[in-house]
Fold:
Amino acid sequence: MPKKLKIMMVASECVPYAKSGGLADVVGALPAALQKIGHEVIVVMPKYRSIDADKFAIKPALSPMGVWMGDTEEWCAVHSTTTSEGVRVYFIEADKYFDRDGLYHDADFNDFLDNPRRFAFLSKSALQLCIDIGFKPDIVHAHDWQTALAPAYLKVWHWDDLILGDAASFLTIHNIGYQGVYDAEHYEYIGLQWGNFTSDKLEDHGKVNYLKGGIQYADMVNTVSPTYSQETRTPEMAHGMAPYLNDKGGNYVGILNGVDYSQWSPELDPLIPANYSRDDLAGKKTCKRELQRRFYLLEDERVPLIGVISRLAHQKGLDLLSGAIERILEKMYVQFVLLGSGDKDLERYFAHLPVRYPGRAGSIIGYNNEVAHWIEAGADMFLMPSRYEPCGLNQIYSLKYGTLPVVRATGGLDDTVEQYDETSGGGTGFKFFEASAHSIYYTVGWAVSAYYDRREHWNQMVQRAMGERFSWDDSAIEYEKAYRRAIKNKRTL
Ligand code: ADP
Structure:
């Protein structure tokens, strides 16, 4: 029997406590899946103001805890809870860093100026926590730039530590577009010694690059889909990180995210107007009608309803959609709903669309989990025109809800959606390749024509899509393999 592993996962988000995107879903689900196959996982994250301690039975665990940042010792407290699946979650309470509204930015989307300090502190304090509670991890697993310094701290400061000295480090890149690049003035606080401020480690054109540091120091790096792991080895897609990722060779891999089907499946979902299944789709019609009502659309069962749930960011290609959606609404008999927030110009554009197409277009600008579930259940197709997509969760949810995805063939979108075959009715969705308004227009047109004119194909695809499974159980096995490789690397490299 291979040894069961002890894993400390440090992240800036984790469902259900704090979430801004897919990262939180992963950190919320992977630990439980790993524990199911016998490993022991603890999660460490910030105690943000928005986290309701009573609701989650979060209790004080340790106080005070001293954390050395460079030459300065800073103090914090630690709280903890145990999830219903038995995962222990620790919250770092440091009011000056985390007791404010917002995770990374203020209400106007201005990044907090002390983000480099906030997340360096989180990374360092997670390691300190292991020491203080006597948790001796085999793996320290960091996620994205926010905690990418943990592998660096581990190697620079804890290599001979009794508790941490044997731990191998692992970094998951959820999105290479966000790297945490900051002025060198922060380097002193970070406290990773100026000797490591070099171009082969943490320095990047005179600044400090957290993600680059993580890539360089981690014993193993992964990203969240096989296709994205290939794309990020190319200069066009890697935002400057291609050489370092290529240098990792086989120590940089793609592991597809799973999905938390306890939250996202039409049979069980408590948030949607009616439940349904592959065998009985009646509830989906109710969901569609209620969705139409909620977005003030014409209540018509026959008209195909296109849904979008997205951050309104360049990555997601919604500026391309803004160049196509009016033509779609004018030329095709369809309805359209969007839920999202982010870029102010796009917010204005999509907020105004229903005024111009009353009864046919609807939008909610904001973040609303219930509405997200309603769209997954009530729409007929789900549109994701991403420029790049490391894994993407919404298209996987939409498969499960029988809401056929229309996606750009990139990253995880390409790995999870199977192209429609017009001759056989095969496939689970509709893929296009060029990132353009033109491609969106024609591919939506292709899907709409299948909806109206090849109904057996559509129904077959819905059945096939709903039967797809991207489970955390499978991903956890892949992570275990990668962890073991990280441990081997740590010992031999
Ligand atoms: P990313 O992490 O790049 O934002 P993903 O598709 O991987 O994209 O994950 C997005 C997650 O965030 C999904 O769970 C989705 O439902 C949720 N989400 C995104 N925008 C919103 C919103 N405006 N309201 C509610 N949920 C949202």
About this structure: The chain is about 40% helix and 20% strand.
